[in-house]
Design goal:
single chain, about 210 residues, alpha/beta, 7-stranded mixed beta sheet, two-stranded antiparallel ribbon, 6 helices, 11 strands
């Protein structure tokens, strides 16, 4: 079992398929997408931080601390996770960090509970659905901070699963959900305008 869990929203992507606009700030159901993510994550964790390398001002109203990547240049989600682990290491009692993607508005409300129930010391617990693993939805032991920093310094890849496999992982499968007559993967993420339109349609259903 995990001890105290902090939450990390990964919002540092380039949003290139959205024309460069920060997709986490786009509206979904009349609210910014990142607000949807915050509202799902907040009951599950002790504290929340947002990882972004963009202008911090648009995130100021979300009642969450903002952290940037500790490594220069765009290094992908692992750099954001390292930022979160470094932040969490200074929080007494926090043993784990739950990472979620800022473009995924329907992730499970029991994500933290189910991942922490499978937590093993020193290993990463990762969510999966529809036979796919979702490495940005994971429970990270804070004790992996130094190992991740060393990996980012020495490795020629920034692939999240490469580090997770190296550290050791356990996978928890989550079922698809029914929203009216539509089957929805809870880890459906928004990359394109078409995805946003689909999420708008799905958000009209029951939560």
């Amino acid at each position: 079992m995990a001890g105290q869990i902090a939450g990390l929203i990964l919002a540092g992507g380039r949003s290139s398929r959205m024309g460069g606009a920060d997709k986490t700030l786009l509206e979904l159901g009349g609210r910014p997408l990142i607000r949807q993510v915050l509202d799902r994550l907040r009951p599950q964790v002790s504290q929340i931080i947002i990882n972004t390398n963009a202008d911090r001002a648009p995130f100021a109203d979300f009642s969450a601390e903002i952290v940037a990547d500790p490594i220069a240049g765009y290094q992908g989600p692992l750099a954001g996770i390292l930022a979160g682990l470094e932040w969490a290491a200074d929080k007494p009692g926090t043993t784990h960090l739950l990472s979620v993607a800022g473009d995924t508005p329907f992730f499970p409300l029991d994500l933290a509970r189910r991942l922490s129930a499978r937590a093993v010391a020193g290993r990463v617990t990762v969510a999966a659905s529809n036979t796919r693993v979702h490495p940005t939805f994971a429970l990270w032991p804070v004790s992996l901070r130094d190992a991740l920093a060393a990996f980012l310094e020495s490795s020629d890849t920034r692939r999240v699963m490469t580090f997770i496999e190296q550290a050791g992982l356990d996978v928890v499968d989550f079922p698809v959900e029914q929203r009216g007559a539509v089957t929805v993967d809870p880890f459906f993420n928004i990359n394109t305008p078409e995805d946003l339109a689909e999420a708008q349609r799905l958000s009209g259903g029951a939560d």
